[in-house]
Amino acid sequence: MFNKLDSVLNRWQELEEAISQPEIIQDYEKYNALLKERFSLQPLVQKYHEYLSVSRQIRDARELLSDPDLSAEAASEIESLSVRQDSLEEELKMLLVPPDPMDSRNVILEIRAGVGGDEAALFAADLLRMYQKYADRAGLSAEILSLSDSDLGGANEALMMVSGPDAFAHFKFESGVHCVKRVPVTESSGRIHTSTVTVAVFPEAEEIELEINPSDLRIDVFHASGHGGQGVNTTDSAVRVTHIPTNTVVTCQDERSQLENKAKALKVLRSRLLDRKVQEEMESRVLERRSQIRWGDRSDKIRTYYFNHDYVVDHRLGLTVSRVSGVMNGDLSPFVDALRLAEKTELLANTQNRK
Predict the structure, then answer these.
(1) Pairing mode, if any, of strands 176-182 and 301-306?
(2) Is 28 exposed, middle or buried (0-12, 13-18, 19+ CB in 10 A)?
(3) In 3-state terms, what secondary structure has residue 128?
(4) Which of these, 173, 167, 165, lies nearest to 291 by C-alpha position?
(5) What is the pTM of this model?
């Protein structure tokens, strides 16, 4: 492990020198690539510097053990520093776990009302707003690609693109069934109902990753419906793209331009097909242990929002977070942080088991 850490430290020093060179600064693409690499190494380098500092302090304290006047104090300091050193070593192991190559991608969320009629559509709209607010908190940009409104102002189906650093890493654990227990606005007797919403999360696909044969596509255009302002129904601007071999269908209608809606629909289609390919590859690796956190079935119930008791439970970790209103206002960090840590812990265990 420490040979690898020393190599990382050497690379960091090389990057520090390189980005200060005038010829590198003038090369925009190379300069930004080096900055991005430096940024990715920074947490590991900072933690390793802290580890080396603690190790030096332990060595210095051991030299004082032979001094009768200072030995007791030195022994106490060594004990305290050793605990910190062990903790830092575990943190370094976590930081050395290779990141998911998809983590840096932009992400597409597909939110669909499930069981529960109008209440499910209202909760789908609530989740859409929750994700928009979480994206804002995380310094990410959220854009609604398509939205099918319900009669009461909910969302039957919504597509949203989230862009920015590590967007997929922030949202990849949201895929699955979200359950809500609350009194619907449509319920006059005050009875608590249970409704569900399904969320699917796809990393944005790059064009070079998948070749789509134009002959495999059926493209239909029609009048847009729902929100969008005046004139939304006056032109055939909405686009439905069907990938015939897989029967994958994507509809986009939020833009006034048919070309813009087609471009968005193809972007979503490409990401869905990439996700399908990745899922099939994961299923084919029957000899490898699947990560139940990351690759859980999309039919699994992952989280329940108990409005009547004012808390939210993530069923994968058994994690309970109080204050539903905080979560619905975009405070998803307790879940995201815990799930990312659990994923790294599992990956680290799998790596060690293969050695």
Answers:
(1) parallel
(2) exposed
(3) helix
(4) 173
(5) 0.69
